[in-house]
Amino acid sequence: MPHEHTTVTPPRHRHKRPHPGPATGTGPVIWRALQILGAFSAQRPHLTLSELARKVDMPVSTVHRMLGDLLAWGALERDEQGHYRVGLRLWEVASLAPRGQGLRERALPYLEDLCQMTRENVQLAVREGTDVVFVERIGGSRAVPTLTRVGGRLAITATGAGLVLLAHAPTSVQNEALARPLSRHTPFTLTDPTQIRRALAQVHACGYAVSDRQLSLDTVSVAAPVVGVTGEIEAAVSVVVRHGSMPTGALADLVRTSCRAISRALHTSVP
Q1: Cys-Cys crosslink for 173: which of 84, 149, 151, 169, Cβ 3.0 to 4.6 Å?
Q2: Do the Cβ atoms of 130 and 177 come closer than 8 Å?
Q3: Residue 107: phi, psi to the nearest 5?
Q4: Distance from CA of residue 254 to its chain's centroid?
Q5: How far apart are the first and last CA of the chain?
Q6: Rounded to whole angstroms, what are the CA distances from 134 to 9, 49, 58, 100, 183?
Q7: In this structure, are residues 238 and 160 in contact, taking their beta carbons and an 8 Å threshold?
Q8: 3-state DSSP call for residue 141?
Q9: Residue 76: beta bridge partners?
Q10: How many angstroms separate the CA atoms of 88 and 71, rounded?
Q11: How confident is the prediction along the chain (271 residues), in pLDDT tens digits per residue?
Q12: Can you tell me whether residue 49 is helix, strand or coil?
């Protein structure tokens, strides 16, 4: 799950080179701009001009010209050392994504209550294709260190929230997620598709997921689903605790209660 320990190397995201887009019009320009923005990551939030040119495989002159436009609009910022970073304007636009903003606003009071009760890490996640993306994270006073960050992604098959979202995903999505190579982060990481499918079936049977030491040897995450207004699973809430610190059954009850409250809040917010 959003686990998440500082001793774990975060899974690397393979950035596929985007299709160059249409041969005419603004297509190539837009794709090149998106490639530049996509070069930044949690591991490399600051990049120089030459680093950007190498990462996107473009001439330095081309990248420099496009950086001027991105800076002028506010998508990027440049510090005194000449390093570029994601700009506040881009964050403002991204925060308007409906699956992040509306969901987060309605869920936040219940996430805060859950964090106060457990004093552990509480996280809210959605599925994007075969990835799990975290839209909120609250750290408790006794929380174990995690890798989770707002907007970050972790392995969908090795996280509590990911298992919940994958269990309720279409069969085609499950097949795609299990067809690609799965990284083994600890001896407990599930990498066999048959074992993972059994775990997904268990999620349906008991209504929650447990990811036991799959991302780090001292963390366990427990997650449950949030039901949207259409009756489909819209998100997952998870709590990450230190292994052995709390019975997973008791933790699952708390998480499921919070998810039911969030689901009701989503339903009542619809005009």
Answers
A1: 169
A2: yes
A3: -85, -25
A4: 22
A5: 33
A6: 17, 29, 31, 9, 20
A7: yes
A8: coil
A9: 86
A10: 11
A11: 444 443 334 444 444 444 444 433 445 888 888 889 888 876 788 999 999 999 999 999 999 999 998 999 988 999 888 899 988 888 777 766 655 557 888 899 999 999 999 989 999 999 988 989 888 888 877 777 666 677 778 889 989 999 999 999 999 999 999 999 898 989 999 999 999 999 999 999 999 999 999 888 889 999 999 998 888 999 999 999 988 878 888 999 999 999 999 999 988 865 4
A12: helix
Residues 6+ apart with CB under 8 A from 271: none
Distance of CA 112 to the CA centre of its chain: 19
Q: Both tokens of residue 107?
A: 């869920």
Rounded to whole angstroms, how far apart are CA atoms 37 and 86?
8
> Whole-model pTM?
0.69
Is 144 exposed, middle or buried, given 0-12, 13-18 or 19+ CB atoms closer than 10 A? Answer: buried
